[in-house]
Structures
1.
Amino acid sequence: MTGTKTGTSLGWFGIMRLGLVQTALGTIVVLATSTMNRVMVVEMVLPALLPGVLVALHYAVQVLRPRQVLLRRRWSANPWIIGGMALLGIAGIAAAVATAWMATNPTAGIVLAVLAFLLIGVGVGASGTSLLVLLAERVDDRRRAAAATIVWVMMISGFVVTATVAGHFLDPFSPERLVAVTGVAAASAFVLTILAVYDIERRTAPPAYRAVERNAGPQPPFAEALAEVWAEPQARRFAIFIFISMLAYSGQDLILEPFAGAVFGLTPGESTRLAGVQHGGVLIGMLLVALAGSAASRSRLGSMHAWTIGGCVLSAAALFSLAMAGSMAPDWPLRASVFGLGVANGAFAVAAIASMMRLVGTGQSSREGVRMGLWGAAQAVAFGLGGMIGTAAVDAIRYLYGSPILAYTAVFAAEAMLFLIAAGLATRVYRLPLALSASRLTTGAEGFTVGLDQA
């Protein structure tokens, strides 16, 4: 199947087309959450907490994801995906203008930035959640985990390409360059989204059994549906695991580029390219797990349980190496530590995604969207809190002790400990018989490998 025949469920080609939407999302998000964050802290000499709060606002809005899912069921997905991307692009440009404005009028710039980042969150939630639910509805169960992995990989690809290309054009840095680069990225992302979703929803259909579930009758009130999903032990445990692991994952997100600039003296372009190195590592980590999954039937190498826990432990080790890096700057191999963090994060992420797409269909039928929305909201809240807590801690320690190196070291070490806690929580999520783990949880990565071959 190619995903282009009327009435068929999405095939590999259709899945990869929808993955381009995630690539477009990543294009704008990486500039807003990484590059603009670093400019505020290093070039504008503003408190690290400011971008932490702004990014937290962008994630806070996304707690509406479960409700957006129920609203989306009343209309087709394409208007939500395209409209969300349009809003995201406009908001991204506004965020760049606000960042530039802070150089001459900090108060006005901050007010505009608050509005821009709120709208970024709305755009990401509307477009991204609608895309994931469309995938969950229109992809056969045997392809679900592989589809989610492909889409996630394509989003990270957007991070890598944007960070590399934007990093080149941002030097020599000026606020005007930041606005121009963001404008080009936003326009490109919008065009790519339109091409990706054009006619795809009309020419595909949910599998017959899922179409029956979707039209089974009136949907319950949002609060009732959410309470039903939260009452499911496995869904609840997985939401808690996502929250803790993503809290650890996101804590370094807003401080890595400022750390590179303040401690290692990297320019805005260089630190943006460093983000590209990290996301390149994420891609490699994801591919490693996907390839290992193909050997699942022959050994434990492909166990998603093992990869999830191992990814958390390796992420902790990489963060401990960054904690050591500050005291040895500029001689420490920063790029190697950042790349290692990316690989570990990618391994953890793809294993968790494979599990998520398998677990989303468990429990009461016709609740896939609410389940996905709950987990998406847990991720969004964790990302917002992680970034805000991390930046606030950097500011507080720097103020108390006057040492940026000590501040970043303490935060990196704390994030490493959170990853170790997440590894322990993962053992509770995966309390399944070994045979079930081997047959179900590894199918996602194995399917991803087969999907790449067939695509």
Note: The first helix runs from residue 12 to 43.
2.
Amino acid sequence: MKKSEITALVTALMNQITAGTDTELVDVEYVKESGRYFLRVYIDKPGGVTVDDCHRITVSLSEQLDLADPIDHAYTLEVSSPGLDRPLKKTADFRRNIGRRVTIKTYQPFNGQKQFEGKLVAVEDGVVKLDVGERQVELPYEQIAKARLVVEF
């Protein structure tokens, strides 16, 4: 299976596993690092993720992956919290974090730049609005390559 097919299958399996719970799937990564394959699943829930949550999802997902058998070589399954600098993937992620600082990378330059950091002020009609210094930047949602929360101490 291709990488995109594996991540799509794992996403579908996770949606079944988390249906009816307060746990949400944040992201799925299937990567090769230093010659080893990793299947990383990031989950979250109100109040944060515990070790028991990660264990429960790991067991359930592992059983489903054993049945589907989509990966024909050895890999490591990792289930964890997305961390304080969690990625923002869905429109709902952006809406839930209005008022927070974010960093965004775009596929194409806007006003000569591809990386922005600022306060997330709105998500309207497919546009993400950021306060960057003394100006506001409007970025089309479909042009956002990566977005993450900025950890502030």
Note: The longest helix spans residues 51-68.
3.
Amino acid sequence: MTMRARLTEALKTAMKEKAAARLSTLRLINAAIKDRDIALRGISEKTEVSDEDILGILGKMVKQRQESARAYEEGGRLELAEKELAEVTVIEEFLPRQLSGDEVENAIVAAIAEVGADSIRDMGRVMAVLKGKYTGQMDFGAVGPMVKARLS
């Protein structure tokens, strides 16, 4: 089942169960995907985003909400932080399992070997391989410094 179909089914279920918070989050996801679909119309011949693109959108949404929750907590707005974290929980249901630290290390070593990287100049190619294979499964903000450390 495609990501788009999974999201549609989850939306229908949330409507039937009258789960307002879940429904709201699922509608936000669909809106973000439709925005990307519209943006692609003028640029590409593709009419819909791929599952990999959807995973990227979801990953970005999780990161945004985590940052917002952190800011709300620092500002003493705990009710808003809880709302953001509840949205993160719903979004993460559609993301693949996150890789453990050891699995991330192994993936980095494999990507470096695959590209044949030997200096920091090859970091972009290594990151491209990792993003192609592990979109939604690792935090690339944290992986970047790890790759850089291995290549220096």
Note: The mean pLDDT is 87.
